[in-house]
Target: Acyl carrier protein
Amino acid sequence: MADQEEVFEKIREVLEDALGVDEDEVTPEATLIGDLGAESIDFLDIVFRLEKAFDIKIPRGELFPENLASADSGFVVDGKVTETGIAEMREKMPHADIDSFAKDPAVTNVQNLFTVDMICKFVGSKLDG
Model:
């Protein structure tokens, strides 16, 4: 079983390097976009760095699923992710806190799913898998 503290420390280093943030900014609850200033292009870099740091393979869209909450996905009505969309998120993102998101499923809140803790859970499951 992967040591959670070791996983977190490595992920903290990856995010510090990829996003140019300070160590104390990378907390488990920090959101990649809101707190750490990540942009969409950074997600590719983060995936690449995680693969290298942990010697794992992360298929495209597995860590950061694409278009789940886009207007043309069929999962969004009036700016909110539908129940079907939330079910799809649970399936594609078992490592994310979908329960918290489901309380206010506004599309603008999707970015809050991408936290340091989510990455830790994802990498931990890959290492244990």
Notes: The chain has two domains: 1-60+114-129, 65-113.
